[in-house]
Amino acid sequence: MASLKSIITFQSASPSQEERVTAEQKTSETILGHYRAVRRQTDLLAAPLSAEDQMVQSGPHTSPVKWHLGHATWFFETFVLTPHLNGYRPFHPLFRTIFNSYFNSAGAPPDEAMRSTLSRPSLDQVRMYCRYVDDSLQNLLQSANLSQEALRLAELGIHHEQQHQELLVADIKHSFWINPLRPAYQGSSLPPINQLTAPPQKPHAYLEGLYEVGSPENEFHFDHEGPRHKVHLKSWRFAVRLVTCGEYMAFIEDRGYERPEFWMSDGWKVVQQHGWKAPLYWEKSGQEWKVFTCFGARKLNEHEPVCHVSYYEADAFARWAGARLPTEFEWEVAAAQVKSEGNLLEDGIFHPMTARAGEGDVPVQVYGDAWEWTASSSAGYPGYRPAPGVAGEYMAKFMSGQMVLRGGSCATPRSHIRTAYRRFLQPEARWQFSGIRLADDGV
Amino acid sequence: MASLKSIITFQSASPSQEERVTAEQKTSETILGHYRAVRRQTDLLAAPLSAEDQMVQSGPHTSPVKWHLGHATWFFETFVLTPHLNGYRPFHPLFRTIFNSYFNSAGAPPDEAMRSTLSRPSLDQVRMYCRYVDDSLQNLLQSANLSQEALRLAELGIHHEQQHQELLVADIKHSFWINPLRPAYQGSSLPPINQLTAPPQKPHAYLEGLYEVGSPENEFHFDHEGPRHKVHLKSWRFAVRLVTCGEYMAFIEDRGYERPEFWMSDGWKVVQQHGWKAPLYWEKSGQEWKVFTCFGARKLNEHEPVCHVSYYEADAFARWAGARLPTEFEWEVAAAQVKSEGNLLEDGIFHPMTARAGEGDVPVQVYGDAWEWTASSSAGYPGYRPAPGVAGEYMAKFMSGQMVLRGGSCATPRSHIRTAYRRFLQPEARWQFSGIRLADDGV
Amino acid sequence: MASLKSIITFQSASPSQEERVTAEQKTSETILGHYRAVRRQTDLLAAPLSAEDQMVQSGPHTSPVKWHLGHATWFFETFVLTPHLNGYRPFHPLFRTIFNSYFNSAGAPPDEAMRSTLSRPSLDQVRMYCRYVDDSLQNLLQSANLSQEALRLAELGIHHEQQHQELLVADIKHSFWINPLRPAYQGSSLPPINQLTAPPQKPHAYLEGLYEVGSPENEFHFDHEGPRHKVHLKSWRFAVRLVTCGEYMAFIEDRGYERPEFWMSDGWKVVQQHGWKAPLYWEKSGQEWKVFTCFGARKLNEHEPVCHVSYYEADAFARWAGARLPTEFEWEVAAAQVKSEGNLLEDGIFHPMTARAGEGDVPVQVYGDAWEWTASSSAGYPGYRPAPGVAGEYMAKFMSGQMVLRGGSCATPRSHIRTAYRRFLQPEARWQFSGIRLADDGV
Amino acid sequence: MASLKSIITFQSASPSQEERVTAEQKTSETILGHYRAVRRQTDLLAAPLSAEDQMVQSGPHTSPVKWHLGHATWFFETFVLTPHLNGYRPFHPLFRTIFNSYFNSAGAPPDEAMRSTLSRPSLDQVRMYCRYVDDSLQNLLQSANLSQEALRLAELGIHHEQQHQELLVADIKHSFWINPLRPAYQGSSLPPINQLTAPPQKPHAYLEGLYEVGSPENEFHFDHEGPRHKVHLKSWRFAVRLVTCGEYMAFIEDRGYERPEFWMSDGWKVVQQHGWKAPLYWEKSGQEWKVFTCFGARKLNEHEPVCHVSYYEADAFARWAGARLPTEFEWEVAAAQVKSEGNLLEDGIFHPMTARAGEGDVPVQVYGDAWEWTASSSAGYPGYRPAPGVAGEYMAKFMSGQMVLRGGSCATPRSHIRTAYRRFLQPEARWQFSGIRLADDGV
Questions:
Q1: In this complex, do C56 and B121 lie within 8 Å of one another by their Cβ atoms?
Q2: Inter-chain contact A5–B375, Cβ cutoff 8 Å?
Q3: Residue B97 DSSP SS3
Q4: Based on the domain organization, do D171 and D208 belong to the same domain?
Q5: Domain stop point among C178, C194, C220
Q6: What is the CA radius of gyration of chain C?
Q7: Which of A148, B64, B364, D288 yields a CA-CA distance of 20 to 30 A from B414?
Q8: Considering only CB atoms, which chain C residues are within 8 Å of B183?
Q9: Residue D62 is part of a domain; what is its CATH number?
Q10: DSSP collapsed to 3 states, B312-348
Q11: Quick one: pLDDT at residue A1?
Q12: Which of C54, C98, C181 sits opposite B120 (nearest CB)?
């Protein structure tokens, strides 16, 4: 068998599978500091929620908050402590199964839909689990014989936890939305709406050329963000800001949801099936649109970016507007030229905000506010190879049938977003903070 | 409304929507000749089938042969004759609905699953419909005031019919497969297996560089095959022939279908769900594999290309073999360097054949034999714009969630395949003649 | 094992499993005559249908006509000829599988939904199969050593075929209904509507008492129609005729389909799910209701019995009308007092007809016109025991989750209906000719 | 309209709709005492469960414990306090929706599957709701102008709450079963298994005759338990005790789950679909069967009654054993002759126990231990009429497609079970404490 396999593979000619160079050799102190900050942030996010709130799973793509907490901790236990901390004893033998998500190589993960049934372990037990792993991980990071591999995996675990912070916000918002009591996640009174008027929409032009995209090797990134490589782009134009709620209302009023000519075939089916007539979290009360936020429901602000739309809606809106969505590389080239600033998780607003005009028509709202759907579907870059080891399942598995989003949202941690960051979601997903950036071909 | 819309669109800056130049101004005689040849071919394909055979619809992605006949004719009636032949009277008012596939703008198409219930119109009536439209179309093509637009649409209709010829072969094969009597589509005795031994598998190398891909404007192509544009490719290697059944058996025997590490996450779910253990049409009888063909079942030939695999299987096999699938552009650049020859529909074999070695290790089996799954998912090219008019629904609609296949198969008409031809299929599809070409990164 | 089983069973005390007495010892000549008449009737029913028509399967509870033909013949081959005709050779080894319905003990039956894919065997082959079995069966029935058991099974086969005659009519009507061309099954012009006015609706009273119900042992009946046994009934009243379309329209106009208070919980869900607003085959065209019949669509006649309603609709209508459905025993006692006449299959009308008043307020339309939903669900009678042998699967299997209908319809053969006849259908079924008889408690 | 309706109804002839006589005029003190005892029992049942435990909903037919608490209270608020306590102010306007189950006439009930998402109201709020309603109800019951109707509805509410006590036990057991940690509901150590040997199985004979069944008018009962009426029964035999686990193991070992001849058609499908190989809560560990109980998992005791089987399994077992299930009236006549004692909720065992032989072969385990599936399906008795008012939805709605169980189980409250009590469940239900009593025809 092996002989036949060697005949039909090209491995003999492949580059030898060397250990990949770790990004800019971060010190263990840096990682430790980052670790502590991120764990503190997780605690902050969970703080307003009761043990009961942390049990809710409102749909197939969401998870209970308690499970997010346990799973983020599980990652450190399974991939960092168990293989790299001498004498480490797992907190509980069954937690390895219970808090597994989809890592087939770490044992058969339980049915996702069953996460809502885990009243045990209790929230208190999960917190004990978190502290237990915290102590061990801090010991490991401070120990003398800490390996580079352990450090690399610890950093991966930190970024993994940040992904789950973002999921946690989107999931709890959805949980409260489907509760007839419509509770608020944060605070009991709504923060004041900013009174800004969105700047005029305009295209910003970019030249045809050969560009470099993808993450540099020496910065932290998930495997699928690299390798850095060249792409040839025709000239294109990129909207200076996100599409607003007011603009999206014009689409609705122009019967956008009823006219098949704007929609992808699959998208049209989804619209019919779910009876979509507006973005998620919009609700008409009399003549007035209201929107549900992490602080409860309030009147829709026309100047704010539209949010919680699916890829299909973003694409249909763009077609209606005579434009299109940018490709992920058009997005990345444009984003590389602006500062990595924006309305992010740490701002505690959890809602996209009205844009302020940039200087000299430079695009704004590129980072934060709302993820931006692109016209690109998930795929590995040229030369892509999954990270070695069991964590190699991390991203490679999802590279089919999903669309790429870029730029992060108001629920993305500041130290988690970067120019080359790619997020994949199914085209019908709406529960994430996802919005619309227009583009078109250059002249 | 309109005013707001104009503010948020970029149309003012877009190039004016001129009439696209028709490919190399084919004469109406050329088109007429092509039309007649294609219609003759359709008749040949349907000839071995009874009226009952032509009723069968074996699953959600297939159609009855009778419906294929009616639908191909419907295209000419709806898009060519009705708007362009003065005084044309449709054959039957309801046929416009019955034989619509998915053209929402041509009226609400009926549920696809209901196509198998159309005992009426009878096959005889459908044949009368075909002849009626034939006569009118030939009149139109020979008339003095034939417009360029009508000519363009007639040519589109011819290629559309060729697509359905290919579907017809795949659909009827599947219909007979699920019938316990396992009838043969063609002939009653199997043609002799060719006694060739497949040449050794080898990689052929290509250099990094900026390449042009996509269809030239002046040749016929579906809208999504253009525009021609530049892509930057890293160096890569391309297998000289398709993967054989024998090589695929090695994957099966190495428990390829039981090891999640080879599979995409979605693919692994599909394998579990359907209990896949081999390609479609393979059947183990005792210790021996048999394969079902258009001529009935026969012993599996290890040297033939493996066929009827899904994208997930092609991808998993490649990972197991230490290789990967080519991107569609790697494929196209390699294909542009070989002659457009192969085992195609007109050869009447309807089954992939053992490769003969190419001269000087030039890749073979690039055209025909089996469609080749690529690592690329369906998307519009830079500058892509749907063809104007109602036929613009033609391809644009399907650009999500599907993977690109290249090169045609033993069921593809010779005048239908071309270097830039892109076919889209859902990653789990197996009923088409789809096989595997390996690739990897260059050195 | 056996010992434990004998301890926990009561078999030792059960009556010995003797051969059941065959009903009134019909001669083989009688059976042969019946057989020929029924086969002739089947041919008559299939005659107006093309081979394509006989392929259609319009839904999960229906079968193609060709399959009905093959299956009725299969029953004779499998249960009569194979075990009882010396030297009988089955027509085709695979037909035993293909034409099996649900007899698990006769081999794994194929998926019902796949019946529509059987273009082979062709209709001609199925007809040859029918003739082949016909010849053999007539030989058997005329042979000297014909056993009582074979005679019993032949008679069972005849009644089984009559059941499929009735299904055939309902199935082909439904097939043509979902075809946009709406073909007519019988004739091309509609028969004239009878101009009668339905007699006034009235209750007919019955006294409390102990009644005998169920089939007498010495008449042919399916196993679940016996044994004959006593039931105690309170006094009750029974409507003299079926509910008319006009009365049902009043229910619709009184918003019957929108008021949950009339509906069983499960029925209300079904109404919502399917969006029912009227009986099957009713269609509103402008202000006028039309009804689809075996002769095509025509204006609704208010005096005709309402037909093609589900149990849920019958039950809701009765509640709205301040009445209820009769139990199956109330029905049977009432039916035993009237003549077994009515509008049945052989009349060739295939549609319920306006009632004529009975003499002295005796209930009419008890047999034929439309099956009458009862308030009883399917269950075995006291002392019920499945018929011995493989045909014992015949009825016993279906005794859960179905409701009992009584009296036959315009699609029931005359020699097939009898006072004790019980038909079981799922409460949501509407494609059979099923109507409504009201009842209530006596005074 | 009204005129037509009056023509087709029989109401004019119906008995006038008088107020039904309330059962034996219980005093308000009696009801108050009962109320307090039942509420105390509910508290006891919920006491071992955390707020998180009370959130879990493990499947479509189960509800979270917190929801059971709220719903039982909601019944009192909606049907007793709101209409009958002057000046009563509902606790919270939305609770009327949230805690509605299926009472369509009390507003649109929310999707059952969403009950698990109600983290708010919190358990503390639900407890406040319970106390609030408790206070009001006790005031009402002690008030001078308490109407008979209010008293009747309060009693109905008490029995309704008892139904939910039973559901609560079954639901929480199932919740813990699907949790990989397999927590115990009650206590941490298992109670000792009683060391009894089940008495020999034997039939007890009953004579043919006319019997009275159904609840007497002057005792409390749900509407569908009456009216009392006569039934004629043939002679029959009734097993003296429930089927044991050991006997059921014999069925399994005799390949009972693999032999279609024992099964109803629908049941066989369900067995295939779910891959059933044993009762719910049975688990094979090595060669040994274990069973999951409310006190955790333990070794299977062959002498205990088998429990948590579906109707299909009970029916198949009976057929395998050469017996059948009793009808509900055979059961009721037999039960009327024994004392209403048994292993019930208040015993706190929550598990069926090995039988002790009765005196003189009188059947034992008739009440308590395990519900007994009967061969009868749910239907209204002769003369049945839903209770007047909105609570009339109480039972009438469910009278289709369900089977009748009799006798209560180890989770049924003592004051809730009675000879005429009928419980309806879908034939595939297994999560209730449901077992098997054999019967057969008399000699």
A1: no
A2: no
A3: helix
A4: no
A5: C178
A6: 23
A7: B64
A8: 120
A9: 1.20.120
A10: HHHHHHHHHCCCECCCHHHHHHHHCCCCCCCCCHHHC
A11: 31
A12: C181
Rounded-to-10 torsion of CA B43, B48, B52, B54: -40
Q: Which residues of C touch B (CB under 8 A)?
A: 50-58, 94, 97-98, 110, 114, 116-123, 175-176, 178-181, 183
Residues from chain A that touch B246, judged by Cβ atoms under 8 A, are 4
Q: Within A143-244, where are the H helices?
A: 148-177
Name every chain C residue with its beta carbon within 8 A of the beta carbon of B94.
180-181
Chains contacting chain A through 3 or more C-beta pairs under 8 A: B, D
Say if residues B371 and B405 touch (Cβ distance below 8 Å).
yes
Q: Are residues C344 and C405 in the same domain?
A: yes
Name the minimum distance, in Å, from the CA of A401 to any CA of chain D: 29
pTM over 0.80: yes
What is the per-residue pLDDT for D385?
A: 78
Token pair in block for residue C258: 């929108």
Contact C165, C65 (CB under 8 A): no
- Judged by CB atoms closer than 8 Å, whether chains meet at A55 and D98 is answered as no
Question: What residue of A is the nearest CA neighbor of B14?
Answer: A443
C286 vs chain D: nearest CA distance in angstroms? 21
Position B1 in a domain: no
What does the DSSP 8-state code read for residue C38? H
Q: Is the pLDDT of residue B24 over 70?
A: no
Question: How many residue pairs bridge chain A and chain D with CB atoms within 8 Å of each other?
Answer: 83
Q: Using the beta-carbon criterion (under 8 Å), do B175 and C114 form an inter-chain contact?
A: no
C-alpha to C-alpha distance for A144 and B165, rounded to whole angstroms: 70
Q: How many CA atoms lie within 13 A of B387 on its CB side?
A: 21
Shared domain check, A260 and A375 = yes
Domain contains A6: no
- Residue of B169, B173, B54 whose CA lies nearest to B413: B169
Residue B403 lies in a domain: yes
D275: phi then psi, degrees, rounded to nearest 5:
65, 35
**Prediction ipTM score:** 0.90
Q: Which residue of B has its CA nearest to C99?
A: B180
Give the residue from chain B lying closest to A398, CA to CA. Answer: B265
Residue A387's domain is classified under what CATH number?
3.90.1580.10
How distant is the Cα of A94 from the closest Cα of chain D, in angstroms? 7
CA D379/CA D399 separation, integer angstroms? 5
> Min CA distance, A53 vs chain D (Å)?
5
Question: Rounded CA gap, D256 and D250, in Å?
Answer: 9
Radius of gyration of chain D (CA): 23
Subunit contact A375:B379, Cβ cutoff 8 A: yes
> Residues D303-320: what's their mean pLDDT?
97
* Same domain for C216 and C169: no
CB–CB of C54/C65 below 8 Å?
A: yes
- Do the strands D439-441 and D236-239 form a parallel or antiparallel pair, or are they unpaired? antiparallel
pLDDT band of residue A105 (cuts 50, 70, 90) is low
Domain count, chain B: 2
Q: Considering only CB atoms, which chain A residues are within 8 Å of B264?
A: 396-400
Same domain, C158 and C226: no
User: Do B76 and B163 belong to one domain?
Assistant: yes
Residues of B in contact with A103 (CB under 8 A): none
Within this chain, do residues A32 and A171 fall inside the same structural domain, yes or no?
yes
Is there a single domain that holds both residue B118 and residue B156?
yes
> Which of C145, C162, C178 is the last residue in one of the domains?
C178
What's the mean per-residue pLDDT of chain A?
89
Its domain, for residue D126, covers 17-178
Query: In this structure, what DSSP letter does residue C79 have?
Result: I
Q: Is residue B184 part of a domain?
A: no
Among D50, D123, D175, select the one facing A117 at the smallest CB separation.
Answer: D175
**pLDDT tens digits, residue range A44-83?**
999 999 999 999 999 878 999 999 999 999 999 999 999 9
